[in-house]
Design brief:
Distance between the termini of chain A: 19 Å
Strand content of chain A: 25-35%
CATH class of chain A: Alpha Beta
Order of helices and strands of chain A: EHEEEEHEEH
Number of domains of chain A: 1
Number of strands of chain A: 7
CATH superfamily of chain A: Macrophage Migration Inhibitory Factor
Largest interface: A-B, 30 and 35 residues
Structural class of chain A: alpha/beta
CATH topology of chain A: Macrophage Migration Inhibitory Factor
Oligomer: homotrimer
Radius of gyration of chain A: 16 Å
Helix content of chain A: 25-40%
Number of helices of chain A: 3
Shape of chain A: elongated
CATH architecture of chain A: 2-Layer Sandwich
């Protein structure tokens, strides 16, 4: 958690851009860094439609959150404000149109290297965060 | 919302087919047209399995609904009847096997161009529908 | 249901590996075999990030469960134990890092060949299981 899937036009991003975007996304979360997965997928214009029209200028972001659930509205606002701010150089500032939606999936149905990740803010999660890798606990 | 992801065999659809499918899907929803995103993904037979067997003849459709939730069973029936009818020329009528499932994800965790989309059937949503683009409200 | 999406490094798996993985996954479920869909997607290192770093050694598995919901913790444990055991030859034993998460999506929003699948363990589901294909009921 989280898993980000970024559908983008062909040649929209260089490898350096993609690394910078992945770092920007990772920095949003106060989680062990290795929790944050980002998959980029280039979609040819003939395979990508918005409102029935080929989308050559659109970035569609799909996210699953697992490790944390939003518990109130202000946290959602802060999250999306951070997304807007940190990703602006790769989206709005380039004239790309974009849309994002997030789902929240069950904490209990998640494993890393076969291990159930520790509870939020537990000593074990702190260890995973510090070491940036999973370990038995 | 909605986001449709269509996994299909190699060479199953031309660009014209894909545009027609995206238009058919868009026509199902009484929403601003630009809410409807469709991503096609060609999957080689060696990467696509149904029941453990390579699937050269199968279309697997995954959908996230965000802008609206189904509030009763009759709406679900009408939705899937519309899907069956509108997509038949590209699925059943071509002898392709197919499966679809839909998830419903939180309205509050969705942004377009950084904006939270307006409430269902609000004046702002009506404006977005008429103009077929998002705007501050 | 279920739908498995497996993001893996380039050249991590041969076609034979992928068939064996799909068979191993299918064997986990006491469902009609054709319910089990598996899509493999090769992701180039420059498009796949874990914790902001390019992931050349990582398999990220995303799953939607539809036909059954986990009703207690022991079933979840048994499921993930089966996943760990059956997929070990293609993950841990090859030195690949990996992560999996599962979501549960609404039974009522699922169709195969346009048909709503029968209720769990109903006579119609048993027929679908025995014949390994859908039929009107």
């Amino acid at each position: 958690m989280p898993l980000w899937k970024i559908y983008h036009p062909e040649n929209a991003y260089t490898a350096n851009d993609k690394k910078a975007i992945a770092e920007a996304i990772t920095a949003i979360y106060p989680l062990p860094k290795f929790y944050v997965g980002v998959v980029f997928q280039e979609v040819p214009k003939h395979s990508f439609y918005i409102g029935g029209e080929p989308a050559g200028n659109f970035v569609r972001i799909w996210v699953d959150h697992i490790a944390r659930q939003f518990v109130d509205e202000s946290l959602k606002e802060r999250f999306f404000a951070a997304v807007n701010r940190r990703l602006a150089p790769y989206l709005a500032d380039r004239g790309l149109h974009w849309e994002i939606h997030v789902d929240e999936t069950p904490f209990g149905l998640w494993r890393i290297q076969g291990l159930q990740p520790p509870l939020p803010d537990s000593p074990a999660e702190n260890k995973w965060r510090e070491e940036n890798m999973p370990s038995a606990y």
